Amino acid sequence: MEHVMERFQRLPLGNICDANGKRGSMDPAIRPVDPSLHMVGRAYTVRCHPGDNLAIHKAITEAPDGSVLVIDAGGYTGGGHIGEIMCFACMQRGIRGLVIDGTCRDADDIQALGFPVFSRGFNPGGTVKETVGQTEIPIVCGGVPVRPGDLVVGNRDGVVVVAKENIEAVLEGAEAIARKEVRVLEELKQGRTTAEIYQFSKIL
Ligand SMILES: O=C([O-])CC(=O)C(=O)O
Ligand SMILES: [Mg+2]
């Protein structure tokens, strides 16, 4: 699986998404704290009560290393559910990154840690720690259904989710698309147009 993760990490998200039937891309309002970071791992899912981060603390203690925490916080933007402390705790547990349908805080410190976080922006406001919530259940995050063990890939383009049953097929399809794009770029350098290469001249 490690090799598979490395291969995914090298691929453009657009190629992965196209090979995934053009599906699986989250709402682009979910943005990386640090656009230079790449993230890939298996989803460990969390549903927390909006404005309450206790379920995320639970997930940090439970998730196996190599996981990406994918958190449905109901799109709540009234407080920062995660910050520097929780991201550092994730790193110590071998968690590869975190996606939250909600806001985080401590942006400068998270960036300094080099831990990949994707969120609906920031809010320095606090959250309560009262409701245990649920982990390892099917959720929706950024408009995309996510189940435990699905593959999650993120970079400055956004976040794409690949169903666990399709990981191998999507990887091979995305690599084939990437190879084809190398050939297209070569043909463009030789002076052909996209209309010629893609044979749009029949309809354009
Ligand atoms: O403690 C919190 O609620 C979130 C936070 O700021 C941190 O993890 O550093
Ligand atoms: Mg903090």
TrEMBL record:
It comes from Lawsonibacter hominis. GO terms for molecular function: 4-hydroxy-4-methyl-2-oxoglutarate aldolase activity; metal ion binding; oxaloacetate decarboxylase activity. It catalyses: oxaloacetate + H(+) = pyruvate + CO2; 4-hydroxy-4-methyl-2-oxoglutarate = 2 pyruvate. Its cofactor is a divalent metal cation; Mg(2+). Its EC number is 4.1.1.112, 4.1.3.17. Belongs to the class II aldolase/RraA-like family. This is Putative 4-hydroxy-4-methyl-2-oxoglutarate aldolase. InterPro entries: RraA/RraA-like (IPR005493), RraA/RraA-like_sf (IPR036704). Catalyzes the aldol cleavage of 4-hydroxy-4-methyl-2-oxoglutarate (HMG) into 2 molecules of pyruvate. Also contains a secondary oxaloacetate (OAA) decarboxylase activity due to the common pyruvate enolate transition state formed following C-C bond cleavage in the retro-aldol and decarboxylation reactions. Mg(2+) binds at D106. The keyword Magnesium applies. Substrate binds at G83, E84, I85, M86, R105. It is an enzyme of class 4 (lyase). The keyword Manganese does not apply.
